[in-house]
Fold these 4 entries.
Entry 1:
Amino acid sequence: MKSTPAATTLTTCAYCGVGCGVSMQPQGDTFSASGIKTHPANLGRLCVKGSALGETLGLQGRLLQPEIDRQPVSWAQALDAVADRLRAIISEYGPQSVAFYGSGQLLTEDYYVANKLMKGFIGAGNMDTNSRLCMASAVVGYKRAFGADAVPCRYQDLEQADCVLLIGSNTAWAHPVVYQRLAQAKKDRPEMRIIVIDPRQTATCDIADMHLALRPGSDAALFCGVLNAMAECGRLDSDFLQLHTQGAAETLRAASEWTLARTAEFCGLAEEQLRDFYRLVGGSERLVTLYSMGINQSSSGVDKCNAIINLHLATGQIGREGCGPFSITGQPNAMGGREVGGLANQLACHMGFTPEDISRVGRFWGSDSVSQSAGLNAVDLFRAGEEGRIKAVWIMGTNPLVSLPDADRVRAGLARCPLVIVSDIMRDTDTTRAAHICLPALGWGEKNGTVTNSERCISRQRAFLPAPGEAKPDWWILSQVAQRLGFADAFAWQHPAEIFREHAALSGFENQGSRAFDISGLAQLSNAEWDGLQPIQWPVNASNPQGTARLFTDKRFYHPDGKARLIAVVPRLPLNAPSEAYPLVMNTGRVRDQWHTMTRTGKSARLMQHLSEPFCQFHPDDAPQIRTGDLLRVSSSHGWLLLRAQPDPLQPRGSVFVPMHWNSNFSQQARVDALIEAHVDPLSGQPESKHMPVSLRRWRAAWQAELFVRGENNVPPLTPYWSRITQPGVSHFTLADSSRPTDWLVWVNEQYPTAGLICQTADLGDDGFSLLAWCEGELQLAFYARRRAPAVDRQAVVAAFSAPPQTASQRLALLAGRAGGDKAPTGAIICSCFSVGEIPIADAVRQGCRSVQQLGDALKCGTNCGSCIPELKKIIAAQLSTLTAGEVK
């Protein structure tokens, strides 16, 4: 890493849509991260991922020079090649043969330039984004109901509500700071009720007063049922419905079919529990529903969103403190992408492809080439590449060969595309391997611009690191290509603040309050004022110069008549139904300490400690032949995965859970989206990622092993199963194979030559083999093979590479995979902030710690970000249940 500046920098977190303010303080040649107490999103809190941001800034694996066909070239050569090849394709096949695919990792200024170039000057609507996979259904739901993509709430509403419904969101792991704010509000106001609606019993249930474990995919029926119940008990706001909405009669008539009995049967819930749920909702004057990917990632996601919004409109619980339907996004700038037109069905600044909007944007941009219609959304865009209709695609800051459904088909489609351009920070990803031209972009910490979080709050992302190698801002790269294509005057910016001002001016152009998104009050900011911009919620204009915390307080909406729309919803189950061949339903999602496809969080050894291998969680009765620690093959009609088995009685019968994060740099066969069929919502184009029929089968391993090799860049061994676990200065792999080597020493030497090294071995016969390889007293390699997954003290082995054991007994202990002397193993890491393992936590409970606070006092676990607190409570409960009166001290 290059030398770092001495000053502290205030910026915004790179991860989820909470949009936390982060202070980055230099510490030697790296940085430490802490929360900004004055930032409205997090008020000083950070989750473990945010706390570890400074550990992900290294340049290992970075793309630092432009490449054509994997060969380094100058920027001039690369930019000329991009422009020349795009021009030739457009000339031969027309503008509709070109597509851009962006990312919520782009800053708003980057997004704006990409959208302007594609839709305004190339003249095709084919600019879409990976946010299509995250919240496109929420966008359409809001637009149908309110006439605009306008999130009405703020985070404070969650703390001020009488009742909060969390649906389709494991908030504790996916949006930890929001969860921490909710947990604190519950502690401050015990009368608050929190209801978790999720087929799984997740960590979020730790603070719940009620958990509704509904049938997967039945969410819309639940909200139709509760709407009907509110009508039956006189809980509707008749005046609000009459004066401020349309569609109420038809919607309530459709909901009336969802009686208590029918809803309970459809959702797989007990009638008494459903009745209690209705009572809690009906008794709440202030209700917030927080929803996320579990709702949106559905073939009927838009209807689910509108079923939620219907409840709030019908009861008048919107536009006031502690109320509202609140969609929370998964990426740091998914909202910014929505604002500039990053979705293929948007033009710019929340304008669509009406003749009036096309004319307005064309006049503002000074272009006669503005696209006349919406473009291809993510799934269709890559399908068009496979079919030969898209001849050139430019992918920016995302990894679709891991994140898109039917990912292997996407790979095959890119292989047929004549021109694949990738702008990224990493050189070797699943997607860059498919590229003809790779362009090195700046990463978080190096970029300068703005992002918008889930509560419409615009924050500055400030650079605190110098540009590494030849990496450039995305807006600069796009502008240089645009100039070479002949559009120099429209893309002549010298600073990102100029782009922001143009974007802000367009948002207010011929607006007069007709469009929700309006930040024209920021269009005159100087560069210095833009640099110092404080977090602010839009709209920001002459009427709201200080921003707008909560929308619809005046009960006026953005449909032409000023009224909101209730939408009659007909609930239906997902299109993919289990079968005899594939009897279980696979749900995908996030884990606590990882982010997207791990290109950033995978760099942090601390973040790899908690859940270090890809896994499959299932109810033991669904696969009784598979035990904890086994490897299992998860198969669908589209492919298969090889994962670590995690039987869990809290997992609902008939459903399995697989994390979304692992890519082919971190595991041999764990790209979960390769299994998923590309069914999409017909209105939003968002794929169904939560409901894919699969089967489980134990994969019989003749041996399993853990391998540690000095150096962080070693290639994985040639085994059917491997998974990489990031460690400082060491390549660490878990391995398995279906056949046993005839000679272990020969096998290890074939993978990593040990000639000239001093080898210390332990042949355990049928039980396995261990090997340590030394050079001049320093450990070079450690290998532990067993019939089942070996129990190795990983921290002790990694430590031996930097501090070799000094005595014969310590080396013998290391050969057995243990620390020498009286140092006890830690077990699985529970608290990533302080690397506190399950074994010392359990010991502390047996020694008298009976609460999370007491564990924190003794071990520090749970005292920083708080993300591990639900697991600490589980360990306390499990230990106390096994202790007898005579064992308790």
Note: Residues 885-889 have pLDDT under 50 and may be disordered.
Entry 2:
Amino acid sequence: MGGEGAIATGRRRVAGYRPLPGVPDEMLDKNGQVRPLWRNLVAHLDALSDEDLTRDLARADRYLLDSGVFYRQYGEGQSTERPWPLSHIPVLLAEDDWARIGRALTQRADLLEAVMADLYGPNELVASRRLPAALVAGNPEWLRPMVGIKPRGGHFLHFLAFELGRGPDGQWWVLADRTQAPSGAGYALENRVAISRAYSELYPDGNVHRLAGFFRDFRDALQAQSRERDGRVAILTPGPMNETYYEHAYIARYLGFTLLEGDDLGVSNDRLMVRTVQGMRQVDVLWRRLDGQYADPLELNPASRIGTPGMVAALRSGAVAMVNSLGSGVLETRALMAFLPQLAPDLVGAPLAMPNIATWWCGTETARAAVRSSPRRMVLADALTTHPPFDPADDLTRAVTLSPQELDRRLSRQGGDLVAQEAVTLSTTPALVEGKLVPRPMTLRVYLARTADGWAVMPGGFARIGSASEASAVAMQKGGAAADVWVVGRDPVPVITLARQAGSADKRQAASGLPARAADNLFWLGRYAERAEGIVRLMRAYHTRMAEAGAAGAPLLAGFDPLLRQMGIDTPDPIPQKLLDNLAAAIGSASSVRDRFSPDAWSALHDIDRSARRMARTVSPGDDAARALSALLRKLAGISGLVHENMYRFVGWRFLTIGRLHERAMGMAALLAVLCDPDAPEGALDLAIEVGDSVLTHRRRFALNASRASVIDLLVLDPLNPRALRHQIDGLREQVDMLPAANDHGALSPLARDALRLHTDLATAEPETLTTEALWALRGRIANLSDVLTTTYFH
């Protein structure tokens, strides 16, 4: 890629770039020259003005922000959603180098599979003393109940990640094996999309290998494991509070799998079942994203609140295939790396093609002597830890910081509990800091997936980039960033999509069952969003009256009090706390169904929340508040359009719509009960028409001033008015009738019966019969529908 001209033009951007002494750099060779692989990228950066570069990189940041990509950061007993920390300079690797990395890691994956099969099978490695018994039996990640369980399909491991580092000699080393529930593949996809937008002129013709084929082949392999024609493939997540939950939802949406939590599942007759609104449905393949010991509180960790009782029994019966098998976390044990080089010739027939970081288990005198003789290059850690390198949870001790006496005492007393590893010096890669390229330490995360043709290697992955020159700064929790990895070919590469390969069946898949938890969250998302709109409409009317009438409007403003109390609003602030609470609740419900919720709607919902919180700090009562609330109302209308006009009409949309209709009906009944009461202050009827967004319609239909009868007719009984109570009940009945089991050969469900009775009573009502008491009673009946719905579908 590129020639001498690229080197020359690239000097401006790299002029101040200085590799760290004695540390290899990915972009520059040992003579300080830009490597041929990097010349086109450097020339592209050089050709951009500072303003153009800022504009291009901002496109990547805007994409991540609009898509809601975040990483949950923990600290001081709380967690916060941190924007995904993207490094704007990709890491480039040649396809020949990548092929060598892939072959080496494929061999390592086979080795780990063989070790896993032995540890949960014949256990010959321990019996022959090639592995210390203490490292297995005393390991909390070795799950005894899984011994003897042969996985359906014959393989224990299906999706792996390897943390790699390049040392001072240019050799790649395996720093850690991630076999439990590897994270980051979804973030790698998002990195690629974001970076391709930043380099839209360079990327398309840059011969960069695409990622979609890797995910397509793995998706097809998982679906092929299903025994049922329309078998379910699901992803098991610990839930929204997990640090990488966004990725779980993103992968589920990207691959078309169902995202489940432990509470969604149950085991019946040793079959793994998901609770859906259509009833219990079998899960055939489960890609778990939680640690194995938490998967089953019945046979594994009894303290788990995120698992499913009976999960092990379902695996034992062969009723479900799991990615990866429970107990695979034992392979991440740091001390195991001391034995893999010796095991490789016997288990895979050859020495390791890529060494792992030099490791000594301190349970033998030979290893302890090695540590004593070279403390300067040794780091001590818990032998059984499974943390990836440079993780904030690592409890590392540099041996050189201990006195010879303390080192000897620790090794003698705790040798079997300790592992020593060589202190690594990571190669560096360029990062953009304050507009300048600077070298930063890097680790590379590479993914492998088992497909119909064996192990497939993702042609990329992502690199963790340090926030400072120290190696420990690559951890995300310590401020590290993530960079896209480009595997660059000599020739143009094919454009690959997620579509099935030619020759595969091209048919519409049957819709999977909607989990009851997802239906519950969609229902409440509809309610919270509609409730927020109701508050905005009411507060806009309040502040409009305040601006227009001043002190003379005090009686009417006082008439708002019952409505404010009904909505839980203590003070008539321009942006009441109750509105902010409802927006936060809507975001919470939406976050639990990220795999089913439009990214555009998610972005719009967050935009409204940010706008409302900003207004709460800056808006003044009266006209200023009324204009601000009108702006919020337009944003809320935009969400309604995104969700209700663009969302596929599956059963989840029905629960979302029922929530919206239910909340609007509740709000309208309460509004009219207060404002149409005979004792309501003057102007209350006009206020009801305004909050009901029906001013123009009332003028067209009734050539007279508002009366109680005209308001009741328009806002309660008119089926053509989208704000009328009758319109909401018509919609509720229609959607309820289309829910699963609502009408079983003429036998109505309790919910369908209640909705029909309510619809019939309202359809036959007259304005004069709808007294204040009748309106409150009507509201109570509408509220009861929520309870019946919950009992029928969500429990």
Note: The first helix runs from residue 4 to 9.
Entry 3:
Amino acid sequence: MSETANVWKEWTFKAYDENNWMPAKVPGCVHMDLYHNGIIPNPFYGKNESELQWIDKKDWVYQCYFDVSEELKSNSHLELVFDGLDTYADVYVNDRHILSADNMFRSWRVDVKQWLTDRDNKLTVHFRSPIHEDLPKLSRLGYGLPAANDQSDVGGLGDKKISVFARKAPYHYGWDWGPRFVTSGIWREVRLEGWSECRITDVYIRQDEVTPLIAKLTAVLEIEVTEAWEGSLHVFTESLSWTKKVDLVSGINHVELNLSIYQPRLWWCRGLGEPDLYSFKVELIGLRGSAAQKSIRTGLRTVKLVTNQDDDGTSFYIELNGVAVFAKGANHIPNDSFLTEVTYETYRHEIATAAASNMNMLRVWGGGIYEQDMFYELCDEYGLLVWQDFMFACSMYPGDEAFLLNVKLEAEENIKRLRNYACIALWCGNNEIDTAWSHYDEQAGWGWKKLYSTEQRDRIWHDYEQIFHMILPEAVNRLAPDISYWPSSPMCGLKGNEDQHAHQNSSSGDIHYWGVWHSVEPFEKYNAHVGRFMSEYGFQSFPEYESVKTYAEETDMALESEVMLAHQKHKLGNQLIKEYMDIYMREPKDFPSFLYMSQVLQAEAMKTAIEAHRRRKPYCMGSLYWQMNDCWPVASWAGMDYYGRWKALQYYARRSFSDVLLSVDDTDESRLDVYIISDMRSPIHGTLRIELLDFSGNVIWCCVGLVEVDALSGVKAISVNKEELLAGNDETSVLLVVQLEKDGTVIGSCEHYLVPFKEMKLADPTIQITEVEGSGGTRFVLETDTLAKQVRISTSTEGIFDDNYFDLIPNRPKIVTFMARSAGRTPFVFSAPAHLETCSMIDCVTRHSKDLKNSMA
């Protein structure tokens, strides 16, 4: 049997070249330990990032003492296990060097029994500076490797980009949404594991064939024994059990047991069914009873990436249990620059937010980390598919033997750790490297190739192929054969010529479309650039005003202040937000209004993109915007900010990702096309109502008809001639309201305007709020006397409304429900908010000239 123990007394730490030992938190990191000891200020406040770059230039030492109980000592093996060391570390037990670590993404274990005493054993971990460790590697290589987001200048290194040499979270070196904090520390659990006789080191429930009729599975076990052992292997799940006699030899044994479950409960992603999970317990029983046991939980499903040739190019979609899934979601980055600050509640809030936003997929992006187990457990529970990148992004990497071996071991360990999670739908080699280098197209790429000689180019590409076309796919195929592998995102396919590399009009593979934002193309371009799977696109906004106040003073509340620029990591970010705002909106009256309007601007951009993608179903089968979350308080592409507060985008995404979407396409100047898109597994028979209203709520024109929508499909329900629709009415003072009813219930609705916001003739609305009787202060009715655009409800209680940033139409009361953010197991709970307030777009803009004249008079 084996047992695990946390035996550590108080941890302390110090700089290697100093003598001042201070209290430390483990798991933790040096930056947070310095902060909690009052040595450094809050890293996220003001311009403090630039003042703290000295930390990664020093070595740090962590130390603690521990006793070993008689019970632990009685084991024949006693292993010291580190689930994560960040990153270059030498470990000593009682001053004896026992291991050297060089990969943040791997675990480390050593049998230390022979070196332990009963009391006051000393454990020391010496973290070597990642900067001083990797600078010599750059020098030995003789030339730098591209690393687009390595902010070496912020770190005082000039153009020496060394992030590529470390198997460490790339975003620690900075990104265009994140700060540069190159951390060190014991970032995952450290423990003593004692075991005797035998232990189960790994259990994999391989899903060989899964249908609604039968699940044919194989329990694949890795068992370590000290000497020859005989007994029986038992596997249990619910009311089923399977048994096999085993004869094991000393060392590592691999054992398989076939399992069959008839009429299994399948695991489905959100929207398509229930995410049912099975718990499997594996036990070895010998002459003296139970010798070892291990439990895992998984969902039974078939999942694969489908890339078939068709008339348009090559498809790209996830098929789950035989159903083609339109992927709806976002790209996930780490939830904090300091990873040990991320709690279960942080993860739960993010995953619950994704599910509440009608998402069914998150992409774990390759510049962060292979996430904690609790992240994937929550995705399993909530029914969110995971597109899982390996941790490589926007850089070329070295190809020396030691680096490649490190990558191989990292890949194998993380595939084995994650392969039982039902949510894992795809393994992807890297983020944006294939398209950035574009080896087979001299004119394409990010300009990297031009910096190197032909010989250097060939070597760099050879090293790339070693990792992403050989090591990683081989590991996936061998260790998780039921999951597909995709070498790079975006990419057209493995073609070995210029057609391999993705571009914004690719008709194969996946696309990252950044013409809107980086190239300052108008929002309308989202309608023109729709690929088979849109795995990245995005637009920035500022976080909530309350969030901005955590890093800035009132004197800093200006777009170009030093603090605002310090919390805008894209070099043109604030300028681009302002430029787009000038195109689509009016002038905000003050800085808090600018923050609010930036969020609405972002949300409108993403609404345009998401609905363009969904209208092209099944040609397009995925829409993952950039990005879900933030790692610090910052202006960024995120839909919810660092503190988990929903921006306007999150509410818009909830509507645009709804399982039944009504969407109006006005790309043709002469007509409006009304679409119904359904992600339901059953057909819809309903009544479609289309009304043209003035801003006072009066119906000018109405059309009602019966519609049918097949399961998992979309239809253009009707086309309306704009001129005939308006019939002489002023297009700046009307809106189209579309509703779909089924059995007397509205199952989908939308509003559409014929002109941009800045051209609308809006009056100041008077909004009334009334509590719904008997709701306990959680439900409210909102009414207005004239159209109120993008009504925002706010409260001092942290939480969300079931709808927000919506348009309120006269004579059409709207009921909203408030859910407070819970610190318990339930993500959102009904709770009365405090200090309920509303505002609308018209409250935040400079008044019309007539209003200005009246105020002057």
Note: Residues 848-857 have pLDDT under 50 and may be disordered.
Entry 4:
Amino acid sequence: MGVPEERAQDDGTVRGGGGSHADFSGSARGVVQARSVHGGVHFHRSAPDAEPVPQQLPGDVRGFTNRVVDLAHLEELLEGEGGEGSGSVNVAVIAGTAGVGKTSLAVHWSHRIRDRFPDGQLYVNLRGYDPGPPVGPEQALDRFLRALDVPPTRIPADLEDKAALYRSRLAGRRYLVLLDNASAVSQVRPLLPGTAGCLVVVTSRHRMSGLVARDGARRVTIGTLNEPEAVALLRRATRGYRHDDHPAELVELARLCAYLPLALRIAAERAASRPRMPLRELIRDLRDESALWDALTAEEGEESDAVRTVFAWSYRALPGDAARLFRLLGMHPGPDFGVPQAAALTGAGPVITRHLLDALTGAHLLEQTVPARYQFHDLLRAYAVDQVNQEETGEDRTAVLRRLLTWYLHTADAAARHESGLHRVELGPPEAGVVPSSFRDGHEAVGWLTAEQANLTAAVRAAADAGFDRIAWQLHVVLRAFYSHQNLFADWHTTGALALAAARRQGDRRGEAEVHHSLGMAHTQSQQLDRAAVHHAAALAARRETGDRWGELMSLNGIGLLELRRRRLDVARAAFEESLAVAEELGDRHWRAVVLSNLGETDGEREEFERAHALLTEALEVFRELGAEGNEGNALRCLSVAQRGLGRTEDALRSAGRAVALAQEHGNPMWEGYWLLELGRVRLAGDRPEEALTAYQKAAAQQRRLGDRSREARALDGAGEAYQRLGRPADAVDFHRRAAAVHRELGDLWRWSRATASLADAVEAAADEGDGAEGAREAARLRREVLAVPPQPGDRAAARLHERLRAARGTG
């Protein structure tokens, strides 16, 4: 049967609270609330809290010119057969060659029509043509779901489940979704809403015929500007700087740019920055660059050559330090960057680096997406990569990349110090010249980790590809607490696979063990328990091989928690006993108390209440002496279970009440929501169902906000028990049924069994108030379903549940 507890961490310690994490503030839709107990207690669905409206569109394009015909074609999309009144999802594909202005057109049109989509606008650059890996649909859905106010713990690990949740969140709403730079239909299709009312805009160099044929997309293919439009763009971009340019010279400059908006804007910026230089001289320089480019490159077509020619023309006009930063930025592995990353590449200070970035942005060689964040157009990134390969030696490129990746490693480690209670890997000092960023508090640290999420994954990949294997596996391990707290399963698994291969190439068995342990956590948390067991076993073997006793303690404790989740209680206890022996050998009182507490919890689940009581009492003494109030509160929760089992209900009430009080003193909703579940059970044991309902109501509300579906379902199940005690079985049926459905979906067979058995009792009791025949049949069916799941060895509670069900009427 399944796990008895949901764990926030893999080491059994209690983490300091989700209140400081921005993504742990989901809406309270569907929470349960208790009204006054006078005249009966009942729960109801609350009105939904106001949800934030995502407005992710990039800023509108300054100086957008013409495209009147293309805009008219796009407008027809919302008015034609595939428009608002039809039952289909609106999908517009804007296709065209590189640099032709697809993104500018899509962003400009989206701003024009955004008022028609009041529920919000979502945007992602899928980076289908960047030198690095494109953004996969898993990553895009993860970002969208967070923007849609889905708490991290409610985001599924599986792509299909993510897509289903995304469609559910958009159902009946009006959202505009802009998918920029898609290179394949497979990137786009999981991001399509399931019902009408939304508009999806896709930009791509490909025709996306699969979307047109299968998904009913309408395609608008845009070409280069015509000559008057190109000249108008040049005039608008240079207005206020140049006044006497001859029309024929503007026509010639537009022709040299092949009428491509990207090339035209770069050329216009250079002309505007030299207002006293005659345009004919700039044109002559550009013609010379074009001749040089023709001599050095293979023929790829007029548009391709024009773009590269304009890039080279603008790049060679840069001051030396700005030009070097431009080409070194081509080595940055992720999609965007800030001043600290650019400074790490060059070794320059932040003030100088900021000035250089401003110069590159002014020349239209970089785009500033948000304050202090920059990115390349994919064509310009490719050009920067060409230049760094031509102008920097291989030795210099290696040194620059190592410096940048070292900066990422040590900055991530500084952030993780605020985020993690896990056993950390010591990195040693950074190399000379690397100055990692620091963080004032956990909120700032998590904000940085979130903003850099894609870059950090790319950094692990870049380190592995470049042969910096130690950086690759250490960066993954540094990030494991962030991945754990935010449920970032796609990145966790991706970087874990890269890190494990890197540690193996390096022959670093300790590194392998750390990565295996991390992947064991990842698979445990994503309910892939068999795979988790493989990784935890591999970590334990490597740690024993290398004599890493601290690591062995962690692995044994992790295996115990995994088996507790599997509800293989005998196996869990054996693992904890081994972990305890290592903790005693190492003389670490805190970790000895942590493992004692885990042992006590296991014995409580095994209904070995006397032994559980003794273990937890000993652990509590240490936690109180050390001032570890989070661990103290969790141990009090477990102690309450043992005291209930011993019939010491008043003692249990004091223990559970003190645990909840500690959570409230710390202002920690995660602790409070969890420990309230035990307070509810104690109140039921003391025949106080009205007070139990109050505890379960508050617990359900907390868990809903935190996004913990398992614990929310436990609160609903407890509420169902309270309703049965109050003689209201019809109300109990609804709560037990909802709880059983969630536990089944999560694969928690033990909690599903308990909720389903309680549901059978409630159905039968409710049926007795009527004719009873149909209810009796459903109750018998439910009991048979539970009896089909055999209890694990050593699980007395499950065995007793089966005995009770077999003795119930109608199960034969």
Note: The chain is about 65% helix and 5% strand.
